[in-house]
Amino acid sequence: MLNKEQITTLLQFVASVTPDKISCDACLDLVPELAESQLGNRPLTEVLEDVQNHIDNCPCCAKEYETFLEALHAIAEE
To answer: What are the sequence ranges of the domains in the chain?
Structure first.
């Protein structure tokens, strides 16, 4: 059984999630474009906003995105 605090936390999480408009495969295909936009401080297109939303809600894609960014930073430091 969940206690009151756990239920409240769970409900807050559910309320904060926005609907996903893209799949993991589509997200991962657009990760380089999202990274380029964010690293260049350019505004996100509607599609890239969908990618960002997916990454915010999908731990697997978030990890892939972070790994991609780490690789970009490592390349930049060489």
So the answer is: 21-77
